[in-house]
Specification:
The protein is built from 15 helices and eleven strands. By secondary structure, it is an alpha+beta fold. It has two domains: 90 residues, Roll (Pdz3 Domain); 177 residues, no CATH class. The chain has a four-stranded antiparallel β-sheet with strand order 5-4-6-7, with helices on one face. The protein has a three-stranded mixed β-sheet with strand order 9-11-10. It has a two-stranded antiparallel ribbon with strand order 1-8. Helix 12 runs antiparallel to helix 14. It is flat, with a radius of gyration of 27 Å. It binds zinc ion. Zinc ion (ZN) binds next to helix 7 and helix 11.
């Protein structure tokens, strides 16, 4: 194809390229050394470092934004679902904390400024906590007079504090140190957090719920996120992770894929038995998860289209024999519509939003060890 992109002096340019070619050929250099012929402006090492810090800043800002979203939706569901969680409940104080040391623990080029100082810092807090002056970047130094140095200290202290209806928080801001008493709200005692994995998935391990970064990117609304988190909390409430034969600490929307990854068992069938939740367990979690999302005020009408999109996304894997124990996405969507009709009817008749048969579940949950 003829182009108009020609050099102003083609003969001179040609001879320069030929000379360069000969130079390359006679030198002992490899071809790759001659691959770059353009005279680009020099790159400053300090500038590269700065760009790297910008990438890190964006990575952490995105992570914090996703964490906030998972926490917010998770909190609403955990609090509204208290009646369904038996005695697996604890007080929640509306504090969401992090530390720059944890956020950048794998980084060799952390940015200097992300709006968080060192030590354990508040990232998010419920409105009533913020009203006490406990806002973003406030440093937590004590919980019930126990000194807090790093995130692990905080996690340990809050676990104990959650058994009582109030806690005394010691914190530092620009005005110095002070203490405030926080009142707890009853919530299901299943921490909901973010996992950095890009796969479209979420997990329940009996005590926690993890939502993958890939799932956060996939969901189109907080209503869809609530359906995912509700489903995983339901696995925990229903005791599915502990019921599994091999006691593998994973469960998932696509639990079987995880069974392959963990490689437990000596053949396909033992892997299936050990790693996957049964079809009945998945359907029960779908059903109860929908109630959990509905109780928290999320639009459960989003569920069928969510499962359609999941079905389309995982079309290749749906034909895999490994997925036979799993309800198909279309079956799931149909079951969801039936459950949505049931929820609507209960709302219309002013009946409590409790899934059918959940009384026995709460009783069973009470018999399980608490932590
Ligand atoms: Zn599941």
């Amino acid at each position: 194809m003829k182009t108009s992109d020609t050099s102003p002096n083609p003969r001179k340019a040609r001879s320069r390229f030929r000379a360069l070619g000969i130079l390359c050929a006679i030198s002992a250099l490899t071809l790759s050394a001659c691959a770059t012929q353009l005279d680009r402006p020099p790159v400053d090492a300090a500038a590269v470092l700065e760009e790297g810090q910008e990438v890190e800043r964006i990575r952490v800002a995105t992570q914090l934004e996703r964490m906030s979203r998972v926490w917010a939706v998770g909190d609403r569901i955990r609090i509204a679902g208290t009646d369904l969680c038996g005695d697996r409940t604890a007080y929640d104080f509306g504090l969401r904390v992090t530390s720059r040391e944890t956020l950048f623990e794998d980084s060799d080029n952390p940015p200097r400024e992300i709006g968080l100082g060192s030590g354990v810092r508040v990232w998010d807090a419920r409105a009533e906590v913020q009203a006490l002056g406990i806002r973003r970047n406030v440093r937590i130094v004590e919980i019930d007079h126990v000194r807090i140095h790093e995130l692990a200290d905080y996690q340990k202290a809050i676990k104990t504090a959650q058994l009582q209806p109030s806690l005394t928080l010691g914190f530092e801001d620009d005005d110095g140190f002070r203490r405030e008493t926080l009142s707890g709200v009853m919530a299901c005692d299943y921490a909901v957090s973010l996992n950095s994995d890009p796969e479209i998935n979420a997990f329940a391990d009996g005590s926690n719920v993890f939502v993958n970064a890939g799932m956060i990117r996939f969901v189109e609304s907080d209503d869809e996120l609530a359906i995912v988190i509700g489903h995983e909390i339901a696995h925990n409430v229903l005791g599915h992770p502990t019921q599994r034969k091999a006691q593998i600490a994973v469960g998932a929307v696509f639990d079987v894929a995880i069974a392959v990854l963990t490689g437990i068992g000596t053949n396909t069938f033992s892997m299936l038995g050990a790693g996957a939740f049964s079809e009945g367990q998945e359907s029960d979690s779908d059903y109860m998860g929908l109630y959990l999302a509905a109780r928290a005020g999320y639009r459960v009408e989003a569920a069928p289209s969510f499962w359609h999109r999941m079905g389309a996304e995982t079309h290749d894997r749906a034909s895999d024999t490994m997925l036979r124990s799993h309800p198909s996405n279309s079956r799931r969507a149909a079951a969801m519509r039936a459950a949505i009709r049931e929820i609507e009817s209960k709302r219309f008749n002013h009946q409590p939003l409790l899934p059918e048969g959940s009384e026995t579940v709460a009783a069973n949950a009470s018999r399980r060890p608490n932590r």
